[in-house]
Amino acid sequence: MAEKSFKYVIVGGGVSAGYAAREFANQGVKKGELAIISKEAVAPYERPALSKGYLFPEGAARLPGFHTCVGSGGEKLLPEWYADKGISLILSTEIVKADLASKTLVSAAGDTFKYESLIIATGSTVLRLTDFGVQGADSKNILYLREIDDADKLVETIKAKKNGKVVIVGGGYIGLELSAVMKLNNLDVTMVYPEPWCMPRLFTANIAAFYEEYYTNKGVQIIKGTVAVGFNSNDNGEVKEVKLKDGRVLEADIVVVGVGARPLTTLFKGQVEEDKGGIKTDAFFKTSVANVYAVGDVATFPMKMYNDIRRVEHVDHSRKSAEQAVKAIFASEQGKTIDEYDYLPMFYSRSFNLSWQFYGDNVGDAVIFGDNSPKSENPKFGSYWIKDGKIVGAFLEGGSSEENKAIAKVAKVQPAADNLDVLAKEGLAFASKI
Ligand code: FDA
Ligand code: NAD
């Protein structure tokens, strides 16, 4: 079994790893010093593409088109880029054991990797219905989406089940993005989720009402307030029916499940301090263990703006946290300091012709503004969240890049808002003045 040593190792080869690699290069990492170890077979890519362009029926996005760091307008880092910089991309390699005391990682094939500094960037994995013991949940064509292999399986199944019926389980990000793209593939789509409205961890009832009606107008059927409790399959083991808790039974040729994710921290259990389900870090993404950093989905970090510690499962943070950690590593080597991470939460989604962005915190009272008729040709509406007399969060559907910048500024500056009726009337004009 081989043993290799590197000054820096990143375990995980997703979004954070790609943005970290670019920052290592900016900071002047020397050839041979850095390795990225990833269980995926391809160089880091922009994961959000998998639930959007990758599944389009025509003109679908494919690698190398969406390697990092193209998602934020940067140069695409192709495998040749890593080779040119002397960064080892160790792909199709799952780390199955990590010993932080001896600074050693061991792969499934039994190879050993030693490091001086480690960045944990293992991201999240999907929650599976089999984890909850749902009857028949291991039937064929019950699919999940996290990695490119999952997306390839979806593409194959969409082809095999042309014009078939899809049931989407879950009304969060995956549920909303996948039901739209499945509809674009001309499949018959039904969404099922337990809550009274979709995306309840961010949307208010008002915001959700727009998307639910828009989706319904596109032909997506929505069943709320119940869950899938079992699946029936045919003689080939392929899913055929979804049994709901309320007694209904839905026909299905494909089931896509998006019922949440879990950060991949298992390798490090008992070796590093954890909080809120993630690995606890400081404002430089340093963990409780010297020379070990954690970034992206796995990090529970100080959210300076809200005097709180949080974990964020979104791409903007995975990029920025990776850059911050690498800057901090180089600064500490040079005996310098850098500013603390001061993150303004930013989430976004796209489906059909829709596109929204959200900045800040969705707490307090919410007001809605603008044209939120799902029948409008170009709906443009938003929401502000107001807490203790200040605007702390802002959402905008259909905004231009200037308008999105304006709502970001509102969430950052947190201007006073005394009269919610006036604010609702002013809407986007209020943001433009800040
Ligand atoms: P990420 O999941 O990107 O990478 C983790 C990597 O580690 C993977 O390559 C994995 O294989 C590897 N790994 C894990 N364990 C390992 C081990 N033991 N050994 C070796 N390798 C290991 N966000 C957003 O803001 N807007 C959006 O539109 C979307 N869209 C979106 C679509 C889909 C389909 C998903 C799944 C997610 C999104 N997201 C998103 C969320 C966003 O993609 C996510 O927050 C980031 O990818 C997190 O980056 P990380 O680098 O932390 O993990
Ligand atoms: P999510 O947390 O956004 O949504 C999960 C949904 O499933 C919720 O509505 C939840 O109540 C529902 N649910 C839970 N149990 C259920 C059950 N038994 N039956 C039916 N519904 C059930 O998680 P997700 O949509 O699975 O996304 C997974 C990960 O991928 C997250 O980290 C997410 O942030 C990320 N992601 C983000 C984006 C984006 O930011 N645009 C897009 C895709 C994925």
From TrEMBL:
Residues 6-318 form the FAD/NAD(P)-binding domain. Its cofactor is FAD. It holds the Pfam family MDHAR3-like_C. The keyword Oxidoreductase applies. It is an enzyme of class 1 (oxidoreductase). It comes from the Eukaryota. Its EC number is 1.6.5.4. Gene3D superfamilies: 3.30.390.30, FAD/NAD(P)-binding domain. Keywords: FAD, Flavoprotein, NAD, NADP, Oxidoreductase, Redox-active center. SUPFAM superfamilies: FAD/NAD(P)-binding domain (SSF51905), FAD/NAD-linked reductases, dimerisation (C-terminal) domain (SSF55424). It catalyses: 2 monodehydro-L-ascorbate radical + NADH + H(+) = 2 L-ascorbate + NAD(+). Residues 344-431 form the Monodehydroascorbate reductase 3-like C-terminal domain. One of its GO terms (cellular component) is cytoplasm. InterPro entries: FAD-oxidoreductase/Apoptosis (IPR050446), FAD/NAD-bd_sf (IPR036188), FAD/NAD-binding_dom (IPR023753), FAD/NAD-linked_Rdtase_dimer_sf (IPR016156), MDHAR3-like_C (IPR048618). GO terms for molecular function: monodehydroascorbate reductase (NADH) activity. Catalyzes the conversion of monodehydroascorbate to ascorbate, oxidizing NADH in the process. Belongs to the FAD-dependent oxidoreductase family. This is monodehydroascorbate reductase (NADH). It comes from Heracleum sosnowskyi.
